[in-house]
Structure formats: C-alpha cells, structure tokens
Amino acid sequence: MSKIIVVTSGKGGVGKTTTSAAVATGLAHRGHKTAVIDFDIGLRNLDLVMGCERRVVYDFVNVIRDEARLNQALIKDKRVDNLYILPASQTRDKDALTKEGVQAVLDELDQQGFEFVVCDSPAGIEHGAHMALYFADEAFVVTNPEVSSVRDSDRILGILQSRSKRAEEGLEPVREHLIVTRYEPTRVDRGDMLSVEDILDILAIPLLGVVPECKSVLQASNAGVPVVLDEVGRAGQAYKDIVGRYLGENIPQRFLQPEKKPLFKRLFG
Amino acid sequence: MRWLNYFRSSQRNTARTAKERLQVIIAHERQGAAGAPDYLPRLQREILEVVRRYAEVSERDVKVEVEREDGYEVLALSVALPEETTHALR
Fold first, then answer.
1. Each residue's pLDDT tens digit, A13-34
2. 3-state DSSP: chain A helix, strand, coil percent, rounded to 5?
3. Cα separation, A189 vs B7, whole angstroms
4. Lowest-pLDDT choice from A4-8, B1-5, B20-24
5. ipTM of this model?
6. Which residues 140-199 of chain A have a CB within 8 Å of chain B?
7. d(Cα A199, Cα B22) in Å, to the nearest integer?
8. Which residues, in sequence order, are CB contacts of A267 under 8 Å at separation 6+?
C-alpha cells in the first residue's frame, strides 16, 4: 500500500505548500515513486511552487468527475524522476471533492505503484482540509513559532484524532510529526519567539525537523523550484534532513542555535 | 545601531508570555472539544419540552453536563421541579 502523508496546519501561510513540494521532491529524489496532490480546490498553487503551472491541462476534480483519466492529469516532473504532481482545480465548487472520489484516486495511485502520496491541505478546517487528512497514514503538521499557528495546529491534531478514517474505523491512529518552519534562533535566544521546546511542550507530538527562516524559500518559489533542490540554502538542507529522518535515518536536529557570524557582522550587520 | 541592543537586555520576555497564554487556551479548548458534543443545546431544549408537559419549569431549571473520565462519558441531567409539582408527582 502506498503511504499517504497529509501536510496540514490549520492556519494559512505557514508553509504547507512549500513543505509538500519539498517533501515530495525529496522522497522522489531518494528513489521513491511519489505523487503530490493539491487539495486546495479553487486556490491552486502547488503547480506554481513546483514550476509546472504551464503544463496543467486536467486536474484532480476532472479525474474525480471522470472527465479525464488519472494519467492525463498527473504531471511528471522534469527535474526529478519518480515525481508526479496532481494539480487542484480552479473550480469554485468546494464540494467537488467527495470521499469516494478521493478514495478512487488514491486506490489508482496505489495500483500504479506509488510508494508515497503527499496531500497538500488547504488552510482552515473546512471540507477540503478534511478530505486532505481523511485518508492519511501520516500527518506532517507545519507550525510557525507564533501563537495563532500553534493554536491552530492543536485544533488540527484534534481533528486528525477524531475525524480521520483511521479514527472513525478505530484503526491505529494517524502518525503525527511536527515540522517547525520560519524558525529564528536569534529571536528565540532574545526571548522574542517561542522555542521548539515550548512548541513541543504544548503540542506533544514528535519533532521531525526545524526549518530556519531563510531567503532561499522565497527565491525557490519565485523560480518554481522546490526548495529542497537548493543545495546551498539552509531551508533546503533542513528539508533534506526531514526527508531522511522520515525514512528512518538518524540525523541530529540542526538550525536550533543562532548562526555564528563574525564579530564585525554581529555589531554592524 | 544594532550594537545598542547589547545594552538593552532587560526587555520583557514575550515568548514566555506567549507560551503561558497558549497553555491556558489550548487546555481549555481541548476540554471543550472533548466534553461538549454539539447536540447538547438541542438535547436540553427537547428535554425541557417533555418536562413541560408535566410541570412548569423554565429553561434555567434544566442543566445538562458531560463529564469525561478515562474511557467513558457521563451525561448528567438535572431538572429542578417547582415545589407543588414535586408533591403532585409523589
């Protein structure tokens, strides 16, 4: 069976799509056949972040409504083998996603030998977000070190524990992983920002990784290149670590301490 | 003039405030989500309707509470009946 990973957060703008793109690309880069699905119906954006917006012909809803075959809608990534993108539709009909329809697409991906399916959830706790998490085996909860994001993550954890398929059918619960993004250790040291430990104390789920605040994230989305393909930037390295850890490698946490700058830069930088 | 910040170390620690506020609100919300199903107000109204067929009680005389202990839930209903009706029912 393919592993279904939902990337979710409750709050918008915390880095779900960046994380979905990076994680899916990272998994495929490591040789695993991976599909990444945009569940944000009406507000398609994964295609832009993945740099395939001009290749979208059919979308997720077309497949659910039998207007196109899955293979017509799946976009094969040009940079990384084993990586496929299923874009969201731009329809305004929010109920276009049905449980049966999503299930059918996931089943077909499984039959086609996909090892991982990454579901990029929309913000909020409405229908689209529920559909994105419903079939999940694993949840990557993306949180910023900021009060509203942490609170919304807690809400989403409650929904995963009560309204996912695994919860409804009394199966083993969805495995939850925390990804803290936009982390700034210097501000944490100054007492201006919640620390990873603070967030872990409150949410009480295992930490998969910390992505530092980094210019490279915006540069990557500007260019339509998943940030994990950026070998130099700290965010890219952080996502690479995250994928490795998820695949069971023992990689110590990084980016928890302020970057060491030369004295001159510290005083006048 | 960033070097000036080095002399301003006595700023308030807002991260600690954030954590404390989060702990309070999240504990409260977790309790709310677990302990109060959304049908409770309707249940309360319908119980009141049934009771009113026999006795005159107001909305305030019906209390519905849910308590959750490990593994099971207790739904507690209490209806305060007016004096004379209590006699009549006996």
1. 999 999 999 999 999 999 999 9
2. 45, 15, 40
3. 15
4. B1-5
5. 0.84
6. 146-147, 150-151, 154-155, 158, 162, 188, 190-195, 198
7. 9
8. B2, B3
Nearest Cα neighbor of A268 from B5, B35, B71 is B5
* The two structure tokens encoding residue B76: 């507690």
Distance from CA of A162 to the nearest CA of B (A): 10
Helix (H) / strand (E) element for A133: namely: helix A127-134
| pTM of the complete model | 0.81
Model confidence pLDDT, tens digit, residues A30-86 = 999 999 999 999 999 999 999 999 999 999 999 999 999 999 999 999 999 999 999
b/e code A80-117 from CB counts within 10 Å (16+ = b)? bebbbbbbbbeeeeeebbeeebbeebbeebeeeebbbb
DSSP A172: S
Question: Hey, how many other C-beta atoms are within 10 angstroms of the C-beta on A46?
Answer: 25
Of A134, A38, A41, A44, nearest to A93 by C-alpha is A41
**Cα of B13 vs its chain's centroid, Å:** 32
User: Does any CB of chain A come closer than 8 Å to the CB of residue B29?
Assistant: yes
